[in-house]
């Protein structure tokens, strides 16, 4: 870990937290990931070796705790780690407001988008019986163009291969368009009206899609004005 050579608490904190990927890993832990493979899905461009190294450093710093035996570890935030929530949320809100992605090809990742959707969608919007929503991204890399989100009895499953169930809704659009919707740069219903998103299937279920796809939690914060209570009520 690079040292600034300063005793300043800000320097001490940033030399730990501002290494590449570290706060993104913390974001994933706040999003509910507890296993190595789950964390890896949230940082698909990060090597497993570097992920292991960052997790080890966070554990040594007391930010996370690692429980289990080799090959069967679980990861969770400590009290110190939990106090990072307002920092992560403020940075996300700041980024949404002042440093939004241009959504160029290099920023788009179908797997990351769908994984984020899978853990954020609200299954309670649909009936308890099985509902299957298929996503088609014709501009995504080969092997990542078709995805299925399956909700049943309050559970959500993500499939990259056809699960073999009847499909209730098909959503067709570019990966860029759905990414824009997910980070709140475009409203889902507006994209449908413009023809940027095509929705096929059960019209009653389709009318609930906006409520089901709740968008990225950090992007929904939108502005820093929504977070001052979090900042001043740490601890």
General description of the model:
- The protein is an alpha+beta fold and 235 residues long.
- It has two domains: 9-83, Arc Repressor Mutant, subunit A (Orthogonal Bundle), CATH 1.10.10.10; 105-219, Nonspecific Lipid-transfer Protein, Chain A (2-Layer Sandwich), CATH 3.30.1050.
- The chain has 13 helices and seven strands.
- The strands form two sheets. The protein has a five-stranded mixed β-sheet. Strands 1-2 form a two-stranded antiparallel sheet.
- The protein is globular.
Secondary structure layout:
Layout (H helix, E strand, L loop, with lengths): L8 H9 L4 H9 L5 H7 L5 H13 L3 E4 L6 E4 L1 H4 L2 H14 L11 H9 L12 E6 L9 E7 L2 E5 L9 E5 L1 H8 L5 H7 L2 E5 L1 H4 L2 H4 L4 H5 L6 H5 L3
Parallel strand pairs: 3-6
Antiparallel strand pairs: 1-2, 3-4, 4-5, 6-7
Please estimate the helix content: 40-55%
Low-confidence stretches: 226-235
Q: Quick one: CATH superfamily of the largest domain?
A: SCP2 sterol-binding domain
Structural class: alpha+beta
Shape: globular
According to CATH, the fold-level topology of the largest domain is Nonspecific Lipid-transfer Protein, Chain A
Can you give keywords for this protein?
235 residues; alpha+beta; Arc Repressor Mutant, subunit A; Nonspecific Lipid-transfer Protein, Chain A; 2 domains; five-stranded mixed beta sheet; two-stranded antiparallel ribbon; 42% helix; 15% strand; globular; disordered C terminus
